[in-house]
């Protein structure tokens, strides 16, 4: 049975809530606005189609005898069915547009709609990447304008625009470092990349893909890189350090200048993972910290929509030492104010590392990011970073008596808690996160960074009003107190109750992978679609 | 500033709660030498929405929109009509502003459409299993080679001369820096290359494209058999996914991995990105796949639901032992693909392919009749190669001055090969009209 929650703590206007999602069943399996939805493959009918296309003129095919035989197996749906289907699916998602989305390290800030509008303007959204350059001068200028902002905000002399996401940017930056080492004749001897234990998984994955050996650097008890351990690890075999700053514990690396000096003195490069640039943009330039290259997740700092997991964009700013190795294409301004694209190695002055992506990069993301940047300006970007940091500190301060901050503050843009406040309660970080779902929130990032036990990483961003932060804090306080009451573990284990689905069996999914629909797939027993079909 | 909800009063109240006198105190961990005294210098302040929109209209006005000009450009990105429903659906905030479905209870919308996407991609390619998308076709091709290297424990990839030059460059770049070898055949505009003889015991994979960069449609069944006999894999790249409505799918030719650029379905040209990579393979190789996978399961009440699965391949679990460093992929572009393909369905997708082939056939016949112009293709889908009587690049430039976007000179993509100087790639999709064809033919007559 579902018990109604105690909403007296911190609940603004806290009205009585006697509702229950009890075991009343409906004929359809639906629950008011929660509509059960089959797969398109279970809906289609031959003879239905959601487009009207003209009859093709009859031609003798020139397909070399390779005409496709047999059915593809795609279902036929009309346009209204398609609209209803995907609208219903959309209603099973949580989103930034609905409220606090405190997913640490992911920066779920407001996505302004003007960015969507300008990205779709005729003459921007519909350009072909291989149109003659004389017909895309405005597009090339736009890319260069964004590049100018990125270089100025980071205090770096060059930027490679083509990487498609943060991890792709990491690959680009680490290839540039490998190229610089090769030019020095040191690539064979510098085989080690240092990365803190708290690093994003992409860092060691990238370094390993390029043949480097990854050596972890421990953190000190303040959540920062242990400078002594780092200095001991630096030697003639080290190619680079990959360091996130502010780091994944939400803390600024206080000894960053000493770190970059030691790295450079050892002949190595400093790769900065720019995932958390949003905390300092407009206030601190990574170039002033001795960074050699840094990717910028446009979908984090500059608010291009996360889109259910992409697309992103990961331009990489480069120091003077790495700039000559940037991958092509390069946008070049010639005399007379005309723009061209240097699209291959022979067309550029440097020693480019090669090509990482077809065409010119994620133009649609460039447009949105530039729109966001121009809307904020130098003043607004700085204010946004300050508000993000203030909001995170406010959340940490408001919860520190009931939850356990992993490190002493101030934090930067995200507040990190460990699970020691849940000790002996029978409630895990996972249970706590799932209970947040019932309160109407997307959970925070859980169990990352790995260096903190049962980590809960909360990033409120600058986009939430104080009253919404207060409600969020109130909800977390109530959950923490319930957990600590020692009598609610079973309730927590049963959460979420009010979501479109309850906890899903991930072990079953991995043990018997069903990765596509097949005609023989049947909805499981107990599934409302099964009942509907019968 | 319209995006920032905190008022000055909020900020001072929050600072008081934190116990800080000013926001500067929160940045005290930043070394003094790196603290800027004020804003970043040399950049303008914020703008209202109207000013921002005007600035972008000004950029747009300096370009020639394909909607205002006869248009015949392809070469890896294709102009198709995308139904209004698609763009409406991907702009729903629940899809647009959510992230990777880490919490499946409240992201079933994303997970279910990705499951549908994976099924659609499997069906189109004739393969058993597909992932939840890659950045684009070009990067997916490079990941496919890495996957083949893992499976075969070999390090030599053979690249067809019919492979898109950008794709080839990306594979070569990755090969150079990741320490394996990629041997590229010379670009062959006639499409007559012989790859079977080159497959040996060191070959991890052969990468071919269908239709090829030059437009030829080929059967790779024998090549697949030769690959398998030598213990190598066949990777088939498709840059025009609409072709799969009319052409025998790579899965039926014996391909082991199929990667496609999915842009043509649901996604606009967007000056080159973001697009969506499709990646499909055989069931037996699924654990060596890069990227995310969505699988079916049940919830605590026994109801069907979907989750991210087999993530022990991925970087956030496996770190330096991961199959790929990929994290973010192309979720929203995958949604656009799925919504568009669902609207098309079996009948619509096939008809779309037929329309493309018919339009391209008409274009081919008319340009091939021009004096001095030779059509190099016996076979093609919606794109083909012409040999002009003079270099193609100036011809394209001259037509651009008349606002005719007349294809891609091959020399733009293969600049180091004088033998391709006169070659022009032309594409026609269902968007081609007589109102565009007539000026193209007239323009070519004039400049040739």
TrEMBL record, chain B:
Keywords: Oxidoreductase. InterPro entries: GcvPA, GDC-P_N, GDC_P, PyrdxlP-dep_Trfase, PyrdxlP-dep_Trfase_major, PyrdxlP-dep_Trfase_small. SUPFAM superfamilies: PLP-dependent transferases. Its EC number is 1.4.4.2. Residues 1-404 form the Glycine cleavage system P-protein N-terminal domain. One of its GO terms (molecular function) is glycine dehydrogenase (decarboxylating) activity. It catalyses: N(6)-[(R)-lipoyl]-L-lysyl-[glycine-cleavage complex H protein] + glycine + H(+) = N(6)-[(R)-S(8)-aminomethyldihydrolipoyl]-L-lysyl-[glycine-cleavage complex H protein] + CO2. It is an enzyme of class 1 (oxidoreductase). GO terms for biological process: glycine decarboxylation via glycine cleavage system; nucleoside metabolic process. It comes from the Bacteria. It holds the Pfam family GDC-P. The keyword Ligase does not apply. The glycine cleavage system is composed of four proteins: P, T, L and H. In this organism, the P 'protein' is a heterodimer of two subunits. HAMAP family: GcvPA. The glycine cleavage system catalyzes the degradation of glycine. The P protein binds the alpha-amino group of glycine through its pyridoxal phosphate cofactor; CO(2) is released and the remaining methylamine moiety is then transferred to the lipoamide cofactor of the H protein. Belongs to the GcvP family. N-terminal subunit subfamily. This is Probable glycine dehydrogenase (decarboxylating) subunit 1.
């Amino acid at each position: 049975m579902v018990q109604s929650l105690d909403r007296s703590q911190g609940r603004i206007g806290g009205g009585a809530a006697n509702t229950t999602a009890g075991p009343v069943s409906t004929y359809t399996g639906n629950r008011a606005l929660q509509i059960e939805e089959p797969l398109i493959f279970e809906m289609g009918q031959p003879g239905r189609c959601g487009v009207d296309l003209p009859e093709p003129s009859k031609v003798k095919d020139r397909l070399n005898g390779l005409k496709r035989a047999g059915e593809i197996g795609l279902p036929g749906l009309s346009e209204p069915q398609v609209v209803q289907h995907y609208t219903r699916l959309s209603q099973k998602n949580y989103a930034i547009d609905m409220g606090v989305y405190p997913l640490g390290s992911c920066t779920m800030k407001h996505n302004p709609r003007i960015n969507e509008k300008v990205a779709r303007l005729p003459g921007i959204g519909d350009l072909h990447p291989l149109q003659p350059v004389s017909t895309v001068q405005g597009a090339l200028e736009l890319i260069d304008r964004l590049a100018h902002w990125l270089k100025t905000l980071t205090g770096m002399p060059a930027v490679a625009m083509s990487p498609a996401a943060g991890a792709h940017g990491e690959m680009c930056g680490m290839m540039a470092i490998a190229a610089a080492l090769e030019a020095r004749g040191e690539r064979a001897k510098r085989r080690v990349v240092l990365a803190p234990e708290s690093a994003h998984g992409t860092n060691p994955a990238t370094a390993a893909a390029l043949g480097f050996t990854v050596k972890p650097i421990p953190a000190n008890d303040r959540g920062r890189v242990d400078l002594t351990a780092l200095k001991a690890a630096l030697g003639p075999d080290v190619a680079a350090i990959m360091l996130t700053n502010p780091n994944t514990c939400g803390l600024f690396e206080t000894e960053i200048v000493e770190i970059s000096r030691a790295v450079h003195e050892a002949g190595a490069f400093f790769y900065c993972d720019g995932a958390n640039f949003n905390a300092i943009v407009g206030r601190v330039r990574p170039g002033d910290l001795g960074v050699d290259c840094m990717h910028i997740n446009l979908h984090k700092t500059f608010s291009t929509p996360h889109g259910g997991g992409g697309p992103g964009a990961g331009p990489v700013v480069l120091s003077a030492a790495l700039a000559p190795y940037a991958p092509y294409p390069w946008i070049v301004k010639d005399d007379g104010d005309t723009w061209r694209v240097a699209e291959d190695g022979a067309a550029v002055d440097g020693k480019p590392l090669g090509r990482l992506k077809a065409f010119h990069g994620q133009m649609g993301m460039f447009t949105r990011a530039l729109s966001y940047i121009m809307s904020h300006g130098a003043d607004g970007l700085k204010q946004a970073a300050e508000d993000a940091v203030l909001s995170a500190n406010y959340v940490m301060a408001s919860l520190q008596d009931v939850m356990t901050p992993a490190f002493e503050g101030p934090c930067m843009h995200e507040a990190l808690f460990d699970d020691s406040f849940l000790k002996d309660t029978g409630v895990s970080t996972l249970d706590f996160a799932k209970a947040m779902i019932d309160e109407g929130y997307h959970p925070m990032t859980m169990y990352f960074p790995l260096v903190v036990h049962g980590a809960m990483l909360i990033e409120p961003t600058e986009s939430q009003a104080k009253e919404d932060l207060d409600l969020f804090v109130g909800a977390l306080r109530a959950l923490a107190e319930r957990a600590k009451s020692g009598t609610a573990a079973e309730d927590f284990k049963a959460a979420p109750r009010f979501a479109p689905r309850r906890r899903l069996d991930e072990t079953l999914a991995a043990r018997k992978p069903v990765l596509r629909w097949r005609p023989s797939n049947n909805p499981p027993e107990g599934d409302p679609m099964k009942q509907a079909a019968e | 500033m319209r995006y920032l909800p905190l008022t000055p009063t909020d900020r001072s109240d929050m600072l008081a709660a934190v116990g800080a006198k000013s926001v500067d105190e929160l940045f005290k961990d930043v070394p003094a030498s790196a603290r800027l005294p004020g804003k970043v210098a040399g950049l303008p302040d914020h703008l209202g929405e109207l000013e921002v929109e005007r600035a972008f209209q000004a950029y747009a006005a300096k370009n020639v929109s394909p909607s205002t000009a006869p248009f015949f450009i392809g070469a890896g990105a294709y102009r198709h009509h995308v139904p209004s429903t698609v763009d409406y659906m991907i702009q729903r905030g629940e899809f647009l502003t959510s992230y990777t479905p880490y919490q499946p209870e409240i992201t079933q919308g994303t997970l279910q459409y990705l499951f549908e996407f994976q099924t659609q991609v499997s069906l189109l390619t004739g393969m058993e299993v597909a992932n939840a998308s890659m950045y684009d076709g070009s990067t997916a091709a490079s990941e496919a080679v890495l996957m083949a290297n893992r499976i075969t424990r070999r390090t030599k990839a053979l690249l067809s001369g019919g492979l898109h030059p950008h794709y080839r460059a990306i594979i070569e770049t990755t090969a150079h820096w990741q320490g394996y070898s990629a041997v590229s055949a010379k670009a062959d505009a006639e499409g007559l290359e012989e790859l079977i003889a080159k497959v040996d015991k060191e070959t991890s994979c052969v990468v071919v494209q269908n239709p090829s960069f030059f437009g030829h449609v080929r059967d790779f069944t024998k090549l697949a058999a030769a690959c398998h006999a030598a213990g190598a894999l066949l990777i088939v790249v498709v840059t025009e996914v609409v072709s799969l409505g009319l052409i025998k799918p790579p899965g039926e030719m014996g391909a082991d991995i199929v990667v496609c650029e999915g842009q043509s379905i649901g996604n606009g040209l967007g000056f080159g990105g973001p697009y969506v990579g499709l990646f499909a393979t055989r069931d037996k190789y699924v654990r060596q796949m890069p990227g995310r996978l969505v699988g079916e399961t049940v919830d605590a009440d026994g109801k069907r639901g979907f989750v991210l699965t087999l993530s022990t391949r991925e970087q956030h679990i496996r770190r330096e032992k991961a199959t790929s460093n990929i994290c973010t992929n192309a979720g929203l572009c995958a949604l656009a693909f799925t919504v568009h393909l669902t609207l098309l369905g079996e009948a619509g997708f096939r008809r779309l392919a037929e329309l493309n082939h018919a339009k391209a056939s008409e274009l081919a016949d008319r340009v091939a009749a021009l004096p001095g112009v030779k059509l190099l293709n016996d076979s093609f889908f919606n794109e083909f190669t012409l040999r002009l009587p003079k270099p193609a690049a100036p011809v394209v430039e001259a037509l651009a001055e008349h606002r005719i976007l007349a294809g891609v000179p091959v020399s733009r993509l293969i600049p180091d090969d004088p033998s391709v100087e006169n070659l022009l790639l032309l594409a026609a999709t269902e968007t081609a009209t007589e109102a565009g064809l007539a000026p193209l033919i007239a323009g070519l007559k004039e400049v040739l």
